[in-house]
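Technical note accompanying the year-one report. For the benefit of new consortium partners, we illustrate the data format agreed upon in the data management plan: each record pairs a sequence with a structure-token string. No post-processing was applied to the example shown here.
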Amino acid sequence: MTTTQSNPQERTARKLLTQNQPLFLGIDNGGAAHYWDSYEFAVAVVTADGQAETVELSETSFETLSEWCEYTQNERGWDIGPHVGGSLIDDLIEGVKA
């Protein structure tokens, strides 16, 4: 039987967030991994060296996860991801354009 081991950044995010399986959003250009907790409506940002912070969207000017992802793109850029963003309608529109 094979088990999947989480990486150190994910283990740190799990300690910070309520959700046992936070959603992996991606890794920004600085190497920090971003994880989403829909229970807390918060993002855990964990750097490669283990420094971490939790950002509750209610304490920011961002109302949606999509806005957080856009902010990260503008401030840091995404190296990997984001693996979410926009709405189902936005995804369908992008699919039609392709």
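Partners are asked to follow this layout when depositing records. The chain has one domain: 8-97.
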